[in-house]
Amino acid sequence: MLATFIRYPDLLSRYKKTASNLSVINGLQSITPVIVTAIEQLTSRQDLYSLTLMSWLKVFDSAELLLKPSCAWCPYCYQAWREQGQVIYIPLLWLIEYVKFCPQHQISLENTCPSCNQKMLNFCQPGYCSHCGEWLGQTKYPLKLTTYFRSMGCLSTYQRNISYLQELIAITPYLSKQPQIKDVYSYLHEHCVHLDEQGLKDLSFSFWMSSHLIAKPQSSDTACKPRISLHFLSEVFRCFNITPCQLFL
Ligand SMILES: [Zn+2]
Ligand SMILES: [Zn+2]
Fold first, then answer.
1. Residue 70 lies in a domain
2. Single residue among 156, 172, 188 that ends a domain in this structure
3. pLDDT digits (tens, 9 = 90+) for 48-80
4. The domain containing residue 184 runs over which residues?
5. 81 C-alpha vs ligand 2 centroid, how far in Å?
6. Which residues on neighbouring strands pair with residue 180, listed in sequence order?
7. Is the model's pLDDT at 202 over the cut of 60?
8. What is the pLDDT of residues 133-176, one digit of tens each?
9. Is 32 in contact with 26 (CB distance < 8 Å)?
10. Counting ligands in written order, which one lies closest to the CA of residue 78?
11. Minimum-distance ligand to the CA of 136?
């Protein structure tokens, strides 16, 4: 996550009604590259973009990959990092609305200080409450995640999507060009254009078949094609048994 302690009141005020400050600086808002570029110039660094989701701006629908309105954290990760003398930071993954549990410790991500019961301000020092200053790390027992999902299938889908998200974030610094939605459609075109109806069914693609995305794969007009959801992209990875690396690197 790109730290949000640098304030851009003029820029942020325009987006106040539609997105949290976290989304504006770390997310998929059209203003995000402007802010990140400004911070890169101020800090003489060229790699800060990879702390944000901005590289995926032309793939994901911003309404589908929301960031949380305030910081979330895994208390176990904080505690472990402190005991191991590691840097305390806020991984971008924790801020994505879809992500409810720490994938490593299987506990809920928290967003309220256990000492003062307040949500974090977005301008905070990682690991400490922005209100009372208390340390937020704590060891906890893992949850039985199956009780939080309707079925094992739903849990598997969630865990698969989380691993895709982790990989998408991890490969960001190594992208040779900004990923485009046409990369996804080109892949679909290449792998679906020769398939008949049964072939598509074999790929578990049946729910897409009426979609213009598959029905007209020969169309080269990507301008009218919408950006996609995490679920859509995850289904591409799953159906073709590929990883984000294989599609975008
Ligand atoms: Zn954790
Ligand atoms: Zn507190």
1. no
2. 172
3. 999 999 999 999 887 778 899 889 999 999 999
4. 176-248
5. 20
6. none
7. yes
8. 999 999 999 999 999 999 999 999 999 999 999 999 999 999 99
9. yes
10. 1
11. 2
Domain boundary among 107, 138, 172: 172
Report the domain count for the chain: 3
Ligand 1 ion: residues within 5 Å (CB): 74, 76-77, 102, 104-105
Question: What is the C-alpha to C-alpha distance for residues 136 and 158, in angstroms, rounded to an integer?
Answer: 26
In the predicted structure, residue 85 carries a pLDDT above the cut 60: yes
Q: Quote the pLDDT of residue 221.
A: 53
Q: Ligand 2 mean position to 65 CA, how many Å?
A: 28
* Rounded distance from Cα 119 to ligand 2 centre (Å): 8
Torsion, CA 186, CA 187, CA 193, CA 194, rounded to 10: 140
112 forms bridges with which residues in the sheet?
119
pLDDT for res 86: 98
**Ligand 2 center–CA 83 separation, angstroms:** 21
CB atoms within 10 A of CB 185: 19
- ∠ CA 47-49-51, rounded to 5°: 95
159 shares its domain with 189: no
Q: State the ligand closest to the CA atom of 113.
A: 2
In tens, the pLDDT along 171-184 reads 999 999 999 988 98
